[in-house]
Amino acid sequence: MFTMKGEWANDAPPQLMILSGAGLSAESGIRTFRDAGGLWEGHDIDTVCNFDNWRDNLELVHGFYQARREAAAKADPNPAHDAVARWQTRWPTHILTQNVDDLLERAGCTDVCHLHGRLQDMRCYDCDYEWEHGLGPWTVDQDACPDCGSTRGVKPGVVFFGEMAPEYRTLQRAMDSLRPRDVLLVVGTSGQVLPVARMGLEAPGPTILNNLEPSDVIPDRCFDHTLYRPAGEAVAEVEALLARYLD
Ligand SMILES: [Zn+2]
Question: Which among 137, 180, 232, 246 counts the fewest CB atoms within 10 Å?
Fold first, then answer.
């Protein structure tokens, strides 16, 4: 679980805050369904991960996340995940991601804050119990909550559309604690869900944006450095910038 550490004290050495999104895992073959026309096997993505009606679509919901877990289990970390793990051992680093896969952890990262939950978790909404189910299958009406035995009250532990994202408080705390010597690095994040442009403007220290391509949602002027290429290909250049500010 992500914790805020005392290293954020004013006299602490410069630190790195990394916010990553789908672009980080794209080179590992993890798809985003927004890019795929918002469809999964003909079903609107809003139907299979919508907090307002997930109980009505339970088989579809679990079928969709079953496929997501299988895809994640088959994927491997790419050079960008490896780089984040390396940077975490080199500098005091706080990692926050919108990704629900575990590729950062499998690359060796620790203490990752998953803003939108994790694929391997389940939560029972009949009793509020949460647990790590792993990447294996889940069968509706057979598998049950280990605490209360509910079968149809269990939802994947990923934050759905229309659902509260409790870890956004952690993101806000991390942003608030940035000092002028700390670096904010944003990787593979469209800015459609989180206010990335504003974060770039409000961060008091150096800011780096590495996205696949420019976007109207995140004007270049919001970041000190903008690198538009796949995350895996930008690693060396990003690392050189980080060394300049953090060593
Ligand atoms: Zn339960």
Answer: 180
109 has binding-site annotation: no
pLDDT band at 2 (very low <50, low <70, confident <90, very high): very low
What residues have a C-beta under 5 A from ligand 1, the ion? 124, 126-127, 129, 145, 147-148, 150
Task: Measure the CA dihedral 193/197/203/207, to 10°.
Answer: 110
- Report the separation in Å between the CA atom of 3 and the middle of ligand 1, taken as the mean of its atom positions: 26
ipTM of the complex: 0.99
- Between the CA of 137 and the centroid of ligand 1 the distance, in Å, is 18
Other CB atoms within a 10 A radius of the CB of residue 24 amount to 30
Is 116 an active-site residue?
yes
Residue 50: DSSP 8-state: B
